[in-house]
Amino acid sequence: MSPHNFHILFVFLDGVGLGPVMADNPFATASLPAFARLAGDQLWTNEAVPLREPAHVFVPLDATLGVDGLPQSGTGQATLFTGINGAQLAGRHYGPFPHSKTRAALAAHNIFRRVQTLYPADAAPCAFANAYPDRFFDHVRARNRWTVTTRCCLDAGVRIRTARDLAVGNALAADITGAGWRRFDPDVAVISEADAARRLAALARRHRFTLFEYYLTDKAGHRQSAEFALQVLHALDRFFSALLEDFDSQEALLLITSDHGNLEDLSTKTHTYHPVPLVAYGRGAHHFAHARSLLDVVPAMVDAFAAIGQDDG
């Protein structure tokens, strides 16, 4: 694909909601200039005013999906990546892995498959940017318990990247810098958040649609550690700052959202009922202006590709 074609980069943050301004909400207490810029110079809290501009949208999304109980990753992500209500299919909120009753929807309607249908002539229109160590593959194959994102990759034939891809700069570690890999692979090179952002932006320019999944936000919420939460958020802020500097908003669209709340309330180790943020920044952002829930993200992406991407060739 030409680097000048329209493309979408989707950064998925696990477990990030828009909660109240309080001491237990690190989004309300930390200085996070890149996060603020992504929200139209606002804090990521429930007091943020929705922003709906042609090239910049910041709105809250309902994650409860009309189903009783705390939102969970398995059904929330199934919904987010298909546009089909995974919680209703399962009859409850379920996680962290895909519920068996969502498998058919994931296989047939995940965003990778949707983009592939739009660009049948492209050899590799989609990319999943995360790399996984060998022990991940050994573990999930033995138990057949893939995550929602990796299950979508398997169903759509999208390559799941490995340690080799990470070593040659063709993937990102799930923690962005690769520092976490050093616990089991001391030879992995640790990079800065800025270098990781530039690597991701370069990868995204080679595909129509690229997904990167970040899970430490959810882990920090469950841990209820303010110190760890701030460490995670400051690292992400550095990452987003560099990504915005290297991102061509005239030709591409950056999406950021989550599956459920968690990190925004460190007073509890569970998920929350709070809405999640949706950032759409760049070309075609207006297609997301009226999104109201997790159900609306994939349809808006398809609309943006249909209106812009196919015209670009």
Task: Name its key features.
alpha/beta, globular, two-stranded parallel sheet, 7-stranded mixed sheet, single chain, 313 residues, 13 helices, Alkaline Phosphatase, subunit A
Give the overall pLDDT as a whole number: 95
> What is the CATH level 1 assignment?
Alpha Beta
- The separation of the N and C termini measures 9 Å
Our estimate of the beta-strand percent is 5-15%
CATH fold description: Alkaline Phosphatase, subunit A
Number of strands: 9
* Radius of gyration based on Cα positions: 18 Å
Helix/strand class? alpha/beta
Helix content: 25-40%
Low-confidence stretches: none
Order of helices and strands: EHHEEHHHHEEHHEHHEHHEEH
**Strand order, largest beta sheet:** 2-3-9-8-1-7-4
CATH homology-level superfamily: Alkaline Phosphatase, subunit A
So how many helices? 13
Question: Tell me, what's the shape?
Answer: globular
Question: What is the level-2 CATH architecture name?
Answer: 3-Layer(aba) Sandwich
Biggest sheet details = 7 strands, mixed
Q: List the domain count as a whole number.
A: 1
